[in-house]
Amino acid sequence: MSVLLTTTCAVPAAGAVLTAALPAGATEARRRTTKTVALAVSAVTLALAAVVALRFDPHGARYQLTESYSWIRSFGITFSLGVDGIGAVLALLTAVLVPMVMLASWHDADPGPAAPDGTLDPDTFERRRRTQGFFALILAVEAMVIVSFYATDVFLFYVFFEAMLIPMYFLIGGFGDRAGGPESARQRSYAAVKFLLYNLLGGLVMLAAVIGLYVLAQDQGFGTFDLPTLTDAIADGSLKLSGTAQNALFLGFFFAFAVKAPLWPLHTWLPNAMGEATAGTAVLITAVVDKVGTFAMLRFCLGLFPDASKTFAPAILVLSLIGIVYGALLAIGQKDIKRLVAYASISHFGFIIMGIFAMTSQGQSGATLYMVNHGLSTAAWMLVAGFLISRRGSRLIADYGGVQKIAPVLAGTFLIGSLATLSLPGLAPFVSEFLVLVGTFTRYPAIGVIATVGIVLAALYALLLYQRTMTGPVKEGVRSMSDLKVRELAVVAPLVALTILLGVYPKPLTDLVNPSVDATLSQVHRTDPAPAHPVAATSGGEQK
User: Fold this and answer.
1) Residues near 197 by Cβ (< 8 Å), separated by ≥ 6?
2) Measured distance CA(474)–CA(150) in Å, rounded
3) Could you read off the pLDDT of 34-44 as tens digits, one per residue?
4) Which of 30, 81, 386, 387 has the smallest C-beta neighbourhood within 10 Å, fewest atoms?
5) Is the separation of the CB atoms in 416 and 428 below 8 Å?
6) What is the pLDDT of residues 468-514, one digit of tens each?
7) Are 79 and 68 in contact (CB under 8 A)?
8) d(CA 68, CA 50)
9) Radius of gyration of the chain from Cα atoms?
10) φ/ψ (deg, to 5) at 69
């Protein structure tokens, strides 16, 4: 039995413990050691996740590199891991982004300037004392997210789905954005508590559904939480769930995932959390943690409850459509750069969920690609925005202007992030958004047509943000702004390169995810709709 998946999950977990145990960062040398160790651990995790993706055979079994260890025998709970194409790609995305987040956040836990009398205020002292805690929390989030993508035991998934909230809570509440102003500590606390309460509520509802699923399965001789066993039993009819039971269980799972994703109207925690967190933590939220919600919709909602998924699909599509338009409209009206990115992400998650529940091969392939491409493009956009904010000390759009004349490289990378966000052809998000819209239109034409409004609105908020911050007269506070440094370029360059590469050649990703998409559609007994105007049969090259 291979231990590759366990090793991939264990390395960042062990790294988190090691980083937390390092001596407190009272000196620059100690802080540098802490950061270097954490970065090295994330690099090893990236290498392991890449090996997993390379060893996955798209033409092989649904779940590969499987491992299973007994955990709680009396309830049939195991520590079972297995990877499909979608999980392999999303775990690799996580492993790519975490080193970028660490490099971008290199000084986010450093002490601020001392007071005139040489003392440090309490907040500054805490930042200095907890440098190792900051990077340990990032590694802990990475470990828990990767376990979630590999878990094939329903209870195991639930445990880590909930556990990742703890390090994220401390990252939001304990290490917030220094540009938040004098009320930042109170606002950070509010944002962290709101994040935790919303997601805990979703998790508690899901726990009730997990218990209900186990009880119903046990009554029919399936006393297990093993996902492949349960999905196969439901598919072949040996495990029968009544329509009422399946609908109730589906809603319990879906509610938790919709909060995490987030889907309108369960989204309100996201702008607060992203606005008050550091740029790196904001990337962890929207590009890493939130992807667990959309991934779980594919793996658990559609796999375990195929009939209920089809029953609720039209309603979910309407909510997704509202989220697309609502998020984009609120992004246009934002005065805060980071909250604008947050509302843009709400709109993008609407596209992802719409692609999933359109239940077509194009829609679900597009949704999976969108998870990856949104992670890359939003990470680039948000991290460059973070570099911009750290230089000016303000998140307000009105405080910027003329940046491209002072820092042309920063402005150029910000432009690429903006263009990727509006899905410019040639950049990665275009491919995924196109597939989602095509896949939705073939089954739900009206929803597909209305959803295209989101593309127009995305162009408005992305280009208006660029115009207001980067062009025009140089604002007074911008004149002394420096351009991107080597460390910052090392963060942005790989993200930009991947965004361009996957925009012109997405085949490596589609080859990995398409078999899993086909298996998911088979579970819900869905096939792609026949073309409205099929091509006439031909003979000898001539149309009959």
Assistant:
1) none
2) 49
3) 889 999 999 99
4) 30
5) no
6) 999 888 888 888 888 889 999 999 999 999 999 999 999 888 888 88
7) yes
8) 22
9) 23
10) -130, 135
